[in-house]
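Q: I'm building a small set of examples for a reading group on sequence design. Run inverse folding on the following structure and report the sequence directly after it, with nothing in between.
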C-alpha cells in the first residue's frame, strides 16, 4: 500500500507498532474459526446431551401444560404458569448456554490472545460515513470477504445436498412411522446432518485463520521512513542525545571536582593521570576513588588539590593501575590495597609532622594490573 511520502510498506511492524495496535483493539481475529467452534460444539453437545434435553423439555411441557379446567380459566394462573415454564426451560438449557459462551470466548482469543481495548469501544463518527463505507465494501478486502462468503455457501450447500441425498430414503420413511418414533428418528437424522454440515466449517476455518494472520501483518507493515521516524521518537534525535550526554558528562565532572578538596591524597603520573583517593576508617572498608582523569582533567584535579592543600604524590605505576582498573565513586581493587596502604601511611605520616622522603620505593602492584 503506497504511503503519502511515496514509499511502500515493505518492513515488518516494530514491537512498538504491534503494541499500539493491540491498545487500539487491532488484533487478528477469525470469525470463521469462532463459527466453526460454535457449530461443532453445539453439534457435539446435542449429540451427548440432546436426548436429555428433549426429555427434560417434554417433561416440563407435560407438567406445566397439564392443568385443570379451573386453572385454565384463572387469569392470574396462566402468566405464572408461562413464566414458570420459561424459567424451567432456561434452567435446563443453562449448561448448553454456558458451554457455548465458553467456546465463543476461547475461539475468539485463540489467535491473538486476550485483549481488551477501551479505544475500540469508543464511538467514531467516521464509521457512519457512507462514502468510506462504500469504499470498504468495494475494496480488495471486501472482495475477499465476498469470495469467502460464496465459498462457504457453496461448500456448505454441497455437503447439505449430499447429506440429504444420502438420507433421502430415511426421511421419506418417517411418514410411515408413528408420531413418537418418527419424532425420535427425525431428531437423530437432523442431529447427524447438522454435525456433518458443521464439519465443513473446519475447511473454511483452516483457510481463513492463515489469511487473517497474513492480512493483519500486512496492514501493520511499515515503510522505512516510518521506522526511522519511530526510532527518532523513541530514541530521540542523535544531536539531542549527544548534547544530553555532553551535559551529563559535564555535570558528573563538576560533582567529581567538588569532591577533590575532601580527598586524602592525589596520586599522579605526574602529568598524564591524576587519581584522588579518600579513606575513612570508620565508614569505609577500603579507600575510595573520588575523582579521576587524564590530561586536561588531571591538570584540573591537581590544580584544585593544590588550592586546598591536598597532598600530591607522584607514583606513575600506581596511577596508571588505578586509572585503568578503578571506578569513580567505588572502592579500589583489592589487589591494590597494599600499594595504596603504603601511600596513605606516608600521607598520614606527613600530616602528623613527619619528614618528607624522596621516594616511596617500588610499590607492590600485580603484573596483571600494570599498564606501562
Amino acid at each position: 500500500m503506497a504511503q503519502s511520502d511515496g514509499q511502500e510498506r515493505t518492513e515488518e511492524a516494530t514491537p512498538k507498532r504491534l503494541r499500539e495496535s493491540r491498545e487500539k483493539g487491532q488484533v487478528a481475529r477469525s470469525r470463521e474459526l469462532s463459527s466453526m467452534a460454535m457449530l461443532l460444539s453445539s453439534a457435539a453437545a446435542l449429540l451427548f446431551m440432546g436426548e436429555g434435553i428433549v426429555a427434560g423439555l417434554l417433561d416440563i411441557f407435560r407438567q406445566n401444560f397439564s392443568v385443570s379446567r379451573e386453572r385454565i380459566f384463572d387469569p392470574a394462573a396462566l402468566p405464572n404458569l408461562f413464566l414458570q415454564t420459561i424459567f424451567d426451560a432456561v434452567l435446563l438449557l443453562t449448561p448448553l448456554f454456558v458451554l457455548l459462551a465458553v467456546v465463543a470466548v476461547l475461539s475468539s482469543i485463540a489467535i491473538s490472545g486476550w485483549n481488551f481495548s477501551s479505544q475500540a469501544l469508543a464511538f467514531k463518527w467516521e464509521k457512519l460515513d457512507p462514502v468510506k463505507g462504500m469504499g470498504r465494501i468495494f475494496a480488495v478486502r471486501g472482495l475477499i470477504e465476498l469470495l469467502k462468503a460464496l465459498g462457504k455457501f457453496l461448500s456448505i450447500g454441497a455437503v447439505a445436498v449430499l447429506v440429504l441425498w444420502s438420507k433421502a430414503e430415511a426421511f421419506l420413511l418417517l411418514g410411515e412411522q408413528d408420531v413418537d418414533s418418527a419424532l425420535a428418528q427425525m431428531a437423530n437424522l437432523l442431529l447427524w446432518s447438522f454435525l456433518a454440515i458443521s464439519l465443513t466449517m473446519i475447511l473454511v476455518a483452516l483457510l481463513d485463520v492463515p489469511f487473517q494472520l497474513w492480512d493483519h501483518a500486512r496492514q501493520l507493515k511499515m515503510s522505512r521512513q516510518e521506522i526511522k521516524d519511530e526510532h527518532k521518537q523513541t530514541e530521540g534525535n542523535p544531536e539531542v542525545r549527544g548534547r544530553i550526554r555532553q551535559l551529563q558528562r559535564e555535570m558528573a565532572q563538576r560533582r567529581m571536582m567538588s569532591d577533590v578538596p575532601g580527598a586524602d591524597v592525589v596520586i599522579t603520573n605526574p602529568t598524564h593521570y591524576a587519581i584522588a583517593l579518600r579513606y575513612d576508617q570508620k565508614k569505609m572498608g577500603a579507600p575510595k576513588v573520588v575523582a579521576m582523569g587524564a590530561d586536561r582533567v588531571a591538570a584540573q584535579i591537581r590544580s584544585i588539590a593544590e588550592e586546598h592543600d591536598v597532598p600530591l604524590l607522584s607514583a606513575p605505576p600506581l596511577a596508571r593501575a588505578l586509572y585503568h582498573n578503578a571506578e569513580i565513586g567505588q572502592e579500589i581493587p583489592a589487589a591494590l590495597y597494599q600499594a595504596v596502604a603504603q601511600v596513605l601511611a606516608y600521607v598520614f605520616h606527613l600530616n602528623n609532622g613527619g619528614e618528607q622522603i624522596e621516594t616511596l620505593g617500588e610499590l607492590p602492584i600485580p603484573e596483571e594490573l600494570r599498564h606501562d
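The CA atoms of residues 335 and 366 lie 7 Å apart.
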